[in-house]
Amino acid sequence: MAQFQEVSKQSALHPKPAGLVLQYGTAGFRTNAKLLDHIMFRMGLLATLRSKKTKATIGAMVTASHNPEEDNGVKLVDPMGEMVTPTWEGYATQLANAEQEDLLAALKAIIEKEAINMSQEASVFVGKDTRSSSVSLSKAVLDGVSALGGQSKDYGLVTTPQLHYMVCCQNTQGQYGEATVEGYYKKLCQAFIQLTKNASNCTDDQKHLSVDGANGIGALKVREMESHLKKELHLSLFNDGSTGKLNHQCGADFVKVQQKPPTGMKMNSGERCCSFDGDADRIVYYYADSEGQFHLLDGDKVATLISTFLKELLTQAGLDLEIAVVQTAYANGSSTNYLEDTMKVIVRCAKTGVKHLHHAAKEFDIGVYFEANGHGTVLFSKAAEEKIQQLAEDSNANDERKRAALLLQNTVDVINQTVGDAISDMLLIEAILAIKGMTIQQWHSIYKDLPNRQLKVKVSDRRVIDTTDEERRAVSPAGLQEAVDTLVKKYSQGRSFVRPSGTEDVVRVYAEAETQESADALAHEVSLAVYRLAGGVGGEPKPLH
Ligand code: 16G
Ligand code: MG
Question: Is residue 353 within 6 Å of ligand 1 at its C-beta?
Answer without folding.
Answer: yes
